[in-house]
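Re: fe (ii) ion structure - here you go.
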Amino acid sequence: MSASPNPRFLSPASLIFVIVFFAVPAAALWQATLQFRTNLVLVPVYAVLFFRGILPLASGWLFKAFLCVLAWALGARAWIHVIAGGTLLNCLVPREAYFVISVCFAALLGLALLLVLRDGLNLLWKLVRLKLKAILWPANSFWATLALAFAATIPALLGTANGFADPQYTEVSVRLPGLDPKFDGFKIAFLSDTHINQISDYSQVAAYVDEVNLWKPDLAVFTGDLQDGTPDEVGRTVALLGKIEARLGAYACQGNHELYWNYPQWRSFYGQRGITFLDDAAVTIKDEAGAPVLTLTGLEDLATPEQARATLAKRDPALPSVTLAHRPGHAADIDGLTDLVLSGHTHGGLIPGVAQLVAAANQGFVAGRYDLPRGTALLVSRGVSMWMGVPLRLLDPSEIIFITLHPAPPKGK
Ligand SMILES: [Fe+2]
């Protein structure tokens, strides 16, 4: 691997190389994207890895060919649903294998990003030095590129480990206007985006269900994306959610993933286990003596602003109002019509930098509490788990939120 300063990119050998090790697998990747558009992200990623990572290396074609095969193999997650069966939402691979596959995949994405940054820095360096041959980080050095690969692997490993980790428990106090003082301390267990699928660890789910039960909630709510898979595939683990014991019941709203998996079938599965879905519907939560505590409303995932407002019109205006809406953007449509909106969907943004993009796609909401202009409070959960497409969390722990309600004076008083 002696460094040659001027590798030939346009030789017949390099053309054959590009066709065999880039174009053919890229065509296969394109096939995979027909099933899952998410795989499209791999097209620019592989283009950068091949053309800016491997091709410029001052090493033999055989070694470069080996690196190409390795890169395609490490990115095998794109075809895993084709190779192993299942879908990208719910692959049929063991949890441990999926962990390794996910680390490799994230490291490849990270390496592509670092290669782009390296090229940008080199370009800047040429401009600063006013010298065409000035280079800060060489593209033809195997060892310099390997150092970038290591730099990409560390956050990939940490992020994936966090993605697979147990949820943490976040305690939040909310003052709810009009809450009867006798319900001061009312407890709501708030779970979002549990995304139970075939790699979910049964004992991990059982452990957080136990933890929720130890807290003795008065009410349990789920704000969508509860599972990925069919009842046959994931029903045993999903049934654990029905073991959450909340004194006054358990309710849920639709997420986008509910719409991917025979929603009517799952709705009745949950219903049989004590979890009621509120599809643009309202219910009054009453204590054992029949005293009303609050109105709970649930929005459908694709509810229009008009639909959302019509749902809120169903609530008892004399009672405090809590709304379940999977996408936090819905909160802006019903600001002032409800006291508290509980949402998920964003998974907390997953990675610094990406979180800002996720926020932008969700009307600025990504994680934590927001106080909206007309008095509605919005609480966005980071989610209990992850879907298989993006099992990566950096500085973004998954969570279950324990909400304790306290009375606040009714609005306008
Ligand atoms: Fe979602």
